[in-house]
Amino acid sequence: MAGMFSLGLSTGAARKPNRFYLAYGSNLSLERMKSRCPDAVALGTAVIPGYRLLFKKSKTGSYATIEQDANCCVPALVYRISELDEALLDRYEGYPRYYYKRNFRLSVTRLDSGRRMKERKWCMAYVMHEERTLGEPDMEYFRLLDEGYGEWNFDTDILDKGLADSIGIRAAGEYIERCQRG
Questions:
Q1: By CB neighbour count within 10 A (0-12 exposed, 13-18 middle, 19+ buried), where does 126 fall?
Q2: How many domains does the chain have?
Q3: E strand or H helix at 93, and its extent?
Q4: Is residue 141 one of the residues assigned to a domain?
Q5: Rounded to an integer, what distance in angstroms lies between the CA atom of residue 179 and that of residue 182?
Q6: Is residue 89 included in any domain, yes or no?
Q7: Going edge to edge, which strands form the sheet with 121-128?
């Protein structure tokens, strides 16, 4: 992988998954995540309390982000990632221009056993800068998130509310109707 060498992370230590990453957007897709982060391993699920899902504009469209809201929570897929994976995600997510990193100490429920891990884990998530404006996501992107929510048994009402909070209730209803028609 040519890009790996330009990042200076070709050593074995840089390739060992040793940190936790929270995916709440397109990286809910195992296939997409594997193509972006070769060392990533889906470990479990978690809930980010005190945050809500929104869609905000960046250079190429409107994408998922989270924002503080004491009355909400956002489900996430927890990956164990390597230093190389994090560097690749930084590039993909547009860090630090569009997103910054935020760490959360969360309970993680393992995918393999369905049991909660004994200790809470420090997990990193990318958060879009708050000053970015709200926007309507591309329908293909929204469908990808909807598929991810379904695959991981996340409450799709959270996804729908995130859309409504971003573009308005009426517009979201029309958008979802168009999305379901295909």
A1: buried
A2: 1
A3: helix 83-93
A4: yes
A5: 5
A6: yes
A7: 99-106, 121-128, 19-23, 62-81, 41-57, 109-110
Note if the pTM is more than 0.90.
yes
Closest CA to 32 of 99, 82, 77, 73: 77
Residue 101 belongs to what domain range? 14-181
**Residue 80 backbone dihedrals phi, psi, to 5 degrees:** -95, 125
Q: Which amino acid is at 32?
A: R
| Residue 6 belongs to a domain | no
Measuring CA to CA, which residue among 34, 28, 29, 17 is closest to residue 84?
17
pLDDT at 7: 55
Q: In CATH, what number is assigned to the domain containing residue 99?
A: 3.10.490.10
For residue 62, what pLDDT is reported?
98
Query: pLDDT tens, 61-78?
Result: 999 999 999 999 999 999
Which regions of the chain are under pLDDT 50? 1-6
